[in-house]
Specification:
This protein is mainly alpha-helical. It is 69% helix and 0% strand.
Length: 258
């Protein structure tokens, strides 16, 4: 015992490790968590927000292009139908003229087929051209409704052209209704297709209306000058000492005044 008491115990070279972080029972019962839990939740929220933003950035152009394609279906179809109808009518009319010049218009078996092709082309072309005219008339009307200054003058001709084009389109739809039987299209589809065409024409005209052309020259010049002033590079500010006043005392700078 005496020998053991004479020798002192060497200190432990290994440092004491801090106790591991744990949730105490009273904190768990009270709903409190360690300091690292809010940081983890914040990091998870930031990652989720970043992921949602990236998805929106990627999906927004795709959705925009898809909407433009859906809106372009009816005008493109009308344009193609008008071009086809014009070409078919010209070919049929030219062949009929040739038969008339040859004196075989009444006796040729091709005459009824040519007349039928000319009738179909006229019906389809009338409806397609009326639809395109309605789009341009609505563009003029919306340019007057949403324009400024002298652009309001487009309201009257736009309204007249829109009403006329709409009436002609309704007449064209009634004239082209017999073509649905040739295409084996149910008659119940005609009214929904007509409503879709009208709504699509209004949306397309709203997309393609150019309100910049309806502004007055002075307003356009002011907007252009403001854009040029914002885009012009700002001159660098001098960082030297402020010039002295007449009495010899230095002037206060902008930072001192603020």
């Amino acid at each position: 015992m005496a020998g053991m008491s004479g020798h002192e115990r060497a200190p432990d070279p290994s440092p004491a490790l801090p106790p591991a972080a744990s949730v105490r029972p009273e904190e768990a019962d009270s709903g409190q968590w360690p300091a690292s839990a809010p940081r983890t939740a914040l990091a998870t929220r930031v990652l989720a927000i970043t992921f949602v933003r990236q998805v929106i950035v990627i999906a927004a152009p795709i959705i925009t292009y898809a909407l433009f394609l859906v809106l372009a279906i009816a005008p493109v179809a009308a344009l193609l139908a008008a071009l086809w109808a014009s070409g078919s009518a010209l070919v049929s009319l030219a062949r009929l003229v040739m038969l008339i010049q040859a004196g075989q218009a009444l006796s040729s078996p091709a005459t009824p087929a040519l007349l039928g092709a000319l009738d179909t082309a006229a019906r389809a072309g009338f409806l397609a051209i009326d639809y395109l005219a309605l789009i341009f008339a609505l563009i003029t009307l919306m340019a007057g409704l949403f324009g400024r200054g002298w652009g309001r003058l487009f309201v009257l001709p736009g309204a007249v052209f829109s009403v006329t084009a709409l009436a002609l389109m309704v007449i064209g739809a009634l004239v082209a209704a017999p073509l649905a039987n040739e295409l084996s299209m149910p008659a119940a589809w005609l009214v929904p297709l007509m409503l879709y065409a009208l709504i699509d024409a209004a949306l397309v005209s709203a997309v393609f209306v150019d309100l910049r052309q309806t502004r007055s020259p002075s307003a356009t010049g002011r907007h252009r000058a403001a854009r040029q002033r914002r885009a012009a590079p700002q001159p660098p500010r001098e960082s030297g000492p402020a010039p002295a006043r007449e009495d010899g005392s230095p002037r206060e700078t902008a930072q001192e005044r603020s």
